[in-house]
Design a protein that fits this description.
This protein is mainly beta. It has 1 helix and 10 strands; from the N terminus they run E-E-E-H-E-E-E-E-E-E-E. Strand 7 and strand 8 form a beta hairpin.
Length: 131
């Protein structure tokens, strides 16, 4: 399964997702993605490889020992990891291929902000009528 950044400068490939997809609501995910939550999954390091643009990667240590890697050209957040852990946390939205799995949970919802409401809102397949 392949993934890439927004501008296409960085590409990666994974062989197998080892931890299910979750929607993380923690403050650092919300801030780093400028979104209400980040959809993430775990991939063992041996099942992940950069295909292109590794020299375009930048990193930010968002908490002690945790590096968030993103494309230095377009800013697309791709993975996060801690050096002492065997898995990478892949940003599911950066996948180009369908992971063929559904999310199992919303996590760290205690970090939600008052404006966030993700249940019970109208759902529009495209722009809302009249837009």
């Amino acid at each position: 399964m392949k993934g890439s950044c927004l501008c296409g400068a960085v590409e990666y490939e994974i062989d197998h997702i080892s931890m299910p997809i979750s929607h993380c609501h923690c403050r650092s995910c919300r801030k780093s993605h400028a979104a209400a939550f980040a959809s993430v999954c775990g991939v063992m390091r041996q099942d992940f490889r950069w295909l292109k643009g590794e020299d375009k990667l930048a990193a930010f240590e968002s908490s002690p020992g945790k590096l968030r890697q993103f494309c230095s050209q377009c800013g697309c957040h791709l993975v996060a990891h801690r050096e002492n852990q065997p898995q990478l946390i892949v940003r599911v939205a950066s996948l180009d291929d369908d992971p063929n799995m559904l999310p199992v949970a919303h996590i760290l919802t205690s970090h939600d902000v008052p404006w966030l409401q993700y249940e019970g809102l109208p759902n529009h397949p495209e722009w809302p009528p009249g837009r």
